[in-house]
Amino acid sequence: MKKRALFLLCVAVTATVLATGESLTIDNPENILVLGGIKLSCSAGEFTAAGTGALYGKKYLPINTAKHYRLSGEFKAAPGSAAGDYIRFGLVPSTEWSQIQPVNINIVPGTATELAADCKETDTIIKLKDASKWKGNSLTVVAFDVDPGDKMRDMPNFNISKTGAVKLEQKDGIWLLTLKQPCGRNYPAGTAVREHCAGWSLIYAGSPKLELKPEWQKIDVVIEPGEVAQANINRWWQGTQKTSFCIEAAGKGVVFRNLELKEVTE
Questions:
Q1: Which of 38, 98, 199, 222 has the maximum number of C-beta atoms within 10 A of its C-beta?
Q2: Sequence-separated (6 or more) residues with CB below 8 Å from residue 3
């Protein structure tokens, strides 16, 4: 998972960005990044992704989150597929320079507080002034240097710890959050922090789980305007500036064609 996240960060930095106003399509296997055990081929405009893994578009479309966008595509089971094989179809939310992960925006409400002591990147125990509303579980992430106000100007926040906590306790007037691994960040006492949490990996606006059939199935959905400060599967995540396609396949694979994302105009 760590390698995948790092790889996707590199892709977001180097991917081709299309001109504003153009639609996003895929008509060449060279424009698709293949991860996992998938073997990709193309014939007469139909792509066959045999095996289990993920496909990411290398071209990105600039997004104006105040507008409507239509996401569409056609899918069917790959040869040899079994009942229950499925895909997830959606979009990769990104800023100009990095993919937005769910932990960058998934706020746990009411958890803004401050560090009660200096934090070093090797620390597994984070000392907090008030963590009475923190969950402190396996999905917990500490977001550092946050905007504690309602405007949340730090979002998406990339100043985050590693994911997962094993214990949260109050002792001697402060709260001790024990992480699963070193936090990886250096910040002084008094730094504003907030609890974030893991969640949906991507914007699965097409489908969070489409069971494949031998015949073609068309997905055609409209993403409404606006941004949300959470890893929602059918809305733009806060800070999204560009995006590309993603297909995750489980089972023997998938055949697909006519992928498109375009602005909806009146």
A1: 38
A2: none
